[in-house]
Specification:
The chain has three helices and six strands. With 122 residues, the chain is an alpha+beta fold. The protein has a three-stranded antiparallel sheet, covered by helices on one side. Helix 1 crosses helix 3 and helix 2 crosses helix 3. 30% of the residues are buried.
């Protein structure tokens, strides 16, 4: 659970949640981030929610390749870096074994890539 919490915290940083008030909570045995921003409250966990994972991948311009494993490439074109949250990666590829749940593996690979981006921003 500690590893998941760290992944979510770093992924939240990469997602730009630093301006929001973010707290951790447990919902049905799963860690969620409680994000309060401009008066709205939402629970966020791209490790367990397909929509949160997809929005995170799109926000960070991640290329997801699904096959017998899952590989994630953060795509950054140096000519397109316009803000301080952007991070340039040479060639990072993360993979996650499918096991019994290819959807969970895909979400975890997306969050791991986002966490790597968030960690690089620290």
């Amino acid at each position: 659970m500690s590893e998941d919490r760290e992944l979510l915290e770093m992924a939240a940083k990469a997602a730009g949640f630093e301006d929001a008030r973010v707290t951790m909570c447990i919902v049905s045995g799963s860690i969620k981030l409680r994000v309060v921003n401009a008066g709205s409250i939402r629970l966020w966990n791209p490790l367990t929610d397909d929509g949160d994972a997809l929005r995170l991948a799109v926000k960070l311009s991640l290329l997801v390749e699904c096959y017998t494993g899952v590989k994630i490439h953060p795509l950054y074109d140096a000519s397109n870096i316009t803000d301080v949250r952007s991070v340039e990666f040479d060639d990072i590829a993360l993979s996650e074994a499918h096991g019994d749940d290819p959807y969970a593996a895909t979400r975890r690979a997306i969050v791991r890539a986002a966490a790597a981006i968030g960690k690089a921003q620290a």
